[in-house]
Specification:
By secondary structure, the protein is α+β, with helices and mostly antiparallel strands. The chain has 66 helices and 42 strands.
Amino acid sequence: MWIPTEHEKYGVVLASFRGTVQHGLPLEIGDTVQILEKCEGWYRGFILKNPNVKGIFPCSYIHLKNAVVKNKGQFETVIPVEDSVITEMTSTLREWGAMWKQLYVKNEGDLFHRLWHVMNEILDLRRQVLVGHLTHDRMKDVKQHITARLDWGNEQLCLDLVPRREFSMVDPDEISVTELYRLMEHRHRKKETATPASTHHLFVHVKSLMSANLGEELEVFFHIYDGRENRPLSERFFVRLSKNGLPKWPEKTERQCTLFVDLGSSDLRKDVYIVVHIIRIGRMGAGEKKNTCSVQYRRPFGCAVVSIADLLTADSKDDHLLKVYACNTEIEWYQIHENIIKKANSRYNLSGSNTGLAVALQLLHGDMDQLRREYMGLFTRGVCITKKLGFSDIIMPGEMRNDLYMTLEKGEFEKGGKSVARNVEITVNVLDADGQILKGYVAAGSGEPGADEYHSLVLYHNNSPRWAEQIKLPIPVDMFRGSHVRFEFRHCSTKDKGEKKLFGYSFVPLMQEDGRTLPDGTHELIIHKCDENTSLADCSRYLKLPYSKANLPTNSLTLKGNKESFWITSFLCSTKLTQNGDMLDLLKWRAHPERINDSLSKLKEIDGSEIVKFLQDTLDTLFGILDESSQRYSLKVFDSLVHIINLLQDSKFQHFKPVMDTYIESHFAGALSYRDLIKVLKWYVDRIVEAEHQDHIQQVLKASDYIFKYIIQSRRLFSLATGGQNEEEFRACILELFMSIRFFLSQESKGISPVTQTQAVFLRTFPAIYSELLKFFTVRDVAGFVRETLASLPTVVQADSPLEAVKLQCISKTVESQLYINPESRCILLPVVLRVLHTCLQEQRDLVMCARIFTTMLSLIKKEDNGTVEPAVSEEVELIVESLLEVLLKTILEISNRPQPAGPAMRLQFQDVTGEFVACLLALLRHMSDKHYQKLLQAFNSKDDLRDFLLHVFTVFRILIRPEMFPKDWTVMRLVTNNVIITTVLYLSDALRKNFLNDKFDYKVWDSYFYLSVIFINQPCLQLESFSPSKRKKILEKYGDMRVMMGCEIFSMWQNLGEHKLNFIPAMIGPFLEVTLVPQPDLRNVMIPIFHDMMDWEQRRSGNFKQVEAKLIDKLDSLMSEGKGDETYRELFNSIIPLFGPYPSLLKKIERETWRESGISLIATVTRLMERLLDYRDCMKLGEVDGKKIGCTVSLLNFYKTELNKEEMYIRYIHKLYDLHLKAQNYTEASYTLLLYDELLEWSDRPLREFLNYPMQSEWQRKEYLHLTIIQNFDRGKCWENGIILCRELADQYESYYDYRNLSKMRMMEASLYDKIMDQQRLEPEFFRVGFYGKKFPFFLRNKEFVCRGHDYERLEAFQQRMLNEFPHAIAMQHVNQPDQTIYQADAQYLQIYAVTPIPESQDVLQRDGVPDNIKSFYKFNHIWKFRYDRPFHKGTKDKENEFKSLWVERTTLTLVQSLPGISRWFEVEKRELVEVSPLENAIEVIENKNLQLRTLITQCQSRQMQNINPLTMCLNGVIDAAVNGGLARYQEAFFVKDYIMNHPEDGDKIGRLRELMFEQAHILEYGLAVHEKYVPQDMRPLHKKLVDQFHLMKSSLGIQEFPAYVRASPVPFTNGSPRTYRNSVPSIISPDAGRGVARRSYPAVNRYSSSSLSSQASNEVSNITGQSESSDEVFNMQPSPSTSSLSSNHSASPNVTSSAPSSARGSPQMAEKHKHSRENACLSPRERPVSAIFSNHLDPAQRAPAHQIGDTTLPRSDPNLSAPDKVRPTPSSWSLDSVKERAPSFSDNVSKPICPPIPPRPQHSASSAKNARSQSPGPMSRSPQKTAMPPFTPSPTECQSTSLVSNSPVLSGSYSSGISSLSRCSVSEASGTELPAGDHLSHPLPPPGPLPNSISSSSDEPIRRENKTPPPYSVYERNNPRRPVPLPHSLSIPPQTDPPALPPKPHQIRTGSMKLDGNADPRVPRPRPLPRKVSQL
């Protein structure tokens, strides 16, 4: 039976459990579990990290731990009973564990490894804590280490800062908010700025001395030297080196490492140095030979110096190689370091080029305890301590030191009968009073143990040696008396024996008879002479002698005449001995009572360090004097006591305050002293007002705290001794003293007077007296003293008076004192404190101190453990609220709105004071209860006051919610803040409802309330979804989801508004929309009805939701543009789609309303906008500008224009798109984009406001600026034709304003653009069709197909790769078939890409003769709406012998929503059309194209346009050789056989046409061979002969003996023009292997199709003609397949086939002008131009063959991906091949003598009339390009044309000569070889001069797409100016029913040649100037 557990509640899993039993709970080792029930060895419970899943598990797998259960029952919480640090460690390590793995995934290796080490370190420390074997101090250190590591890790992982007190986490509910803030701030400060250490230490480690001339042992001495004062700062560190230059004792690190301790911050200067002196031990001369002498001398070797400032930047122990210098003469040895520092180069030199001392130097910071912790290894390994000379900056009590330092300075010696100077060595000994040598008390320096004696260095032959050697004598204090130091002088001989002969000695006693030690300073000692045999063992003999020349007796003339002297400098550093006689006199006052007065007076002159050394003795002396002679010396003793007390205020001695405190408590015995102290103190206070000099009185008041301590302690001792006698007298004395104090405090004075300063001094020390008074008086009495004393201060004080600041400081200390903590005294002091605070806050001064006081006050208010509040505490809160709440709110508002100070320190203080006031406000609000709120709200006299208060509260709350209010990792503080805010808002909302509704409604207060609520809900710190599960759980347990609570409050308040809701529509739609973005279902359920309510009220008011809709859309867009683009906001945006989309609540509510339809429509609109905005946000997050970003922006742009009609948004996105294009260097697209804005403007003077980056200006100016920018971008994009149109428009404007200067510039710019058209080369772009299939694509791409304009030099593979890079998850489809529904609905991305061929819109320029290719190239690839793609296939059974019989072509035509190029590089396909081309039609197209190519090449060859004849040779060879090999014969076999003719009677005309073309080809070849023979070079003659022979074979294979009459009759020779096509002939197709242009005929089957590219199978047959050798099987294998490397690498045809019509053929001088005109009039339809351009051969444009290099050996026609019009745009030939019978004679009559044999004309019957063509055409009729009745015919290339089908030639030239209009060239253009700009034959062309043929007049009832469709929002209307009428935009224009008026022509020469034009048009009439085209549609 399962029994609930009582004690077994919490455990840790010891081993993993799989949970394979029924109801088993899987466990992982280390999981923590909460146990609910128990049954026979099994527990039932759950894992704490996943409490929702419960199950059973074995008891043996669980280690139980003690725990406390809260809320027993169903929702009980279990808290383990363990050290809080352990609990925090465990939870933190679990949280880190998950994040640590993520670091590895994110490739943050550095942090990953560092965190790993820290986690292991924490685990080790955790084990130490758990074991529990640590000492208390060690446990404290370990916990401190743990918390430091936890804080480091939390900071690195961007986790929250944890508030701690003594290493334990703090529960924010357990402490005051002000305390919490202080803890957080302290931890934040500690983390941010480390306090600079005041104590520093230098670590030195000697490594070695490197020198070439070693061989003797060395002594190395280090010390720190002050270069400014020229004195050493430290004692010496001494290291012995061996002969090799290495430490003599390498195993003893303490002998080679030292720590120079206690350096102050002032010592880290540039002029403080580390000085190294090196002494060698050996022979007298360094170069002496070895001899029998074994005596060793200490001789100078060298010196090194390094500045200590150089080490400040070094963090680690850097190795330094110090240069060693030697002095030039030994006389300078004593000051060699000074010379090096001063760089006196003449006095020293390098001791050797390779000599250097290797040492490690490192500066360490902090006190010694800190160093021992941080550098434990240093101290455990061993390091000697080198002390500072003298005490450190801070003297610590208890520090024991007794060091006497002596420096051997110099000596003066006589020669002593020698001819040369002596070599003097000094031996130093220390002897005690008995004359015994003290062993081990002579130290050369730290690092080596003390020796019995010290030998100085020897300076060679020097009677005035200067040694400057420092020694240390660490003699114990008890040995000082009677001891002396003896100096023995010996001469060191350099003879063989090397004797050291004693010749004198000196001595100096260490202590004088009166107890004073040897004074510091330099002493000149007497050298007593003696001989070498003198024994100095009996010191009593010489101690009676004088030792110093300073104290020689007057009668000792013999010693005075002694010239020999020895100088030493002594320095005592002792905590026990003194050199000061005055100090000794005072301490021994009883011995000399007469000196007491002098001693007390001199006390102030004694150094402070001497006084603190003997502090207790000095104080005993003073109070002893006071007890014995109080009347006589009371004032002097008092002053001395004041001096000593103030001495302890010095930072150097402040650590002796505890010494004095201990003295007062334990050693002070002056029971009667209090009377004298009170009397003297009152005497001083009474004199304050009258005294002129206040300095001494201020010193007295500064010491008043300790004086009161002495007074109170003295009275206590008296009471203990007497049983409490005279207590009333003592009270009276104290009261009188306070009366005097209050009197002097009440004195008012203007400005800063001495009295004011004295008042300030007393106020600073006053709070320190409270604790002493409390020892004798009750709490209430002392509180009364304090209250009255503070109240006595002058009330009116100047604002800048220092007294005010000091008064606040006094109150601050009062509030922090023990007195205030007591509730009894607090109720007395609180009103005083509140009054002062209120005044300061009102005047906004001393805010830092006010915040401090307020914080302390509030931290003392605490609730009881059961949550109740004591009445006294409640009253206290009420007082504070009443006095300070309003002024506190105003203060926070004031300081929040101030500009922040500039300096970092000031800024930090500014932030601190703001934070403290905020913490005070929160603490106060948290303490307020219902009763407090009621009293507060009832206290307002008027509604206005209450309104102002509420507005202040709501505004302050909004400030508190700001992210910058607290540092980002202060989540704990933010949650407490939010909890207080929501509690307060719940209280205040009642006041809002009661006081500001119905007729008292106040919009401002309600608006402020709603605004606060919205930003409260949207705070990042409340978005629980972004937190870890454990953090989320903690927050929910402690506070719940505060967003939902606030949302419910919003809903409740909204419902109370009633009809006032209309005031918040639509203003609150945006804010409430933000709330719905929060991904919290409960919150959204609350907010949905508000939206419904808003729509309902808006419907009632205005009958629609226009305002609601507009506001929704604006808000959605602004949320995007505010930069809320992180991942969190991405998810928040996603959440709104359910709100407006499938989310049931709002839709269900709307469906029940009367306004259902409009409501659902609104939701649909917003949903669509949301989808686009989400796509936009996603795309904008990508790193680079790519097609996805641009496409997404275009989608959004269109949506704003067409569906929402929001012009400002539309314009904003125009500019965003423009910027994207500029970044991507899409200059043409950028121009089209900016045109959208340009077209919204008019040429008017209407003023425009400042907008985006535009200044305030007139509409005309902005439009002018836009024009110029667009022209510049068109120029950069090489789209000069469009720029010219804008130039003209701008020029017209300048002309109308007579601005000739700018007009001139504009005309020059226009001219420059014309020059660029003619001079610069333009790259021909590729076009690619891209299909995006699958649900994973963004909305604007999903399941749509686009045509994209490729980048320069970009071929299919490169484009495909670019697309795959943009969509890395996409799968490339390897076929070109349309995908099925499974692909459309797949949860993936599929890309289908293949090249397509453009079908140019305008044919006029391309068909016109004489137009240069540079001009035509623009019209071939611009303004393209339609694209084509051909796919070959076999229908029926495939004839293996002849595949031509069944080879069909499937031709797909794609129509776009917008022409390319435009505002994007790609546009969506609007319509697909599919037609099939029969094998016969295919054959016709192949031969037509080949014929056209041959004509073009022959013409170019004749006109010498080709540099060489190779292209013609290759083309002829390809055709003739293929024909011989069966090329044309295959067509004969396929279509000329009887079976085919019988089975396909309807193809009779087509068969005739094919035969005609074959004959024509033979005729062209014959003529071509004739031309070839003329120009062929000699080395190619054999090839030519072979071609001629093969041609005869070909003719015979075709059965041609001679050409038919209709071929022979052609009177037009080649020399006068290119071959000319029939007017209504079959469409000319360009074969991929060469460019050919042939006119179309109106055959029934042909008329269904537009010009196409040939399929691979169709091209296979052509291969027989063109000389290609692919078999048919190979051809079929060339279909796109998955094996190809790219999507469809064969889709594009060769770029090498580019050709153009010969320019010379257009204007041959051998033909009469009128015949040229006649020839032009017979040209084909303007629509004869290429359509498909799929280029598979990926060559650079530079590698493309120019027009004259095109040959026959390009790509095989059999390639399935080749398109027909491959870059070659031949014009309709200039031959006279018109179908009108009567036209032929007119040509033959005017023919000049031909150079080459004439080519016969085509028979008349070969062209069928328009009427016949119309009757035969079974396909749909073509669409007219215009709505007007008589425009030039521009049939669609994808539909049936009864006449004038589009030519397939890629570069078509010729004029409109299809029977519609005939615009002749002007003679100017002929003569110049250039073409003037073409007429505007697009939007509204001129009416044709003659009637339309039947085929055109009845052609199509379906209007062209662009005219019938509302144009997209970016369609650009045509230019308009005062002198050039421009039609309205398409969206506004009404199709004209009458012909538009012709514009005046541009000036040009009128042709003189006369000829009849089609219709009635007169060719001499100059062609009218065309209207400018709409550039955005061009």
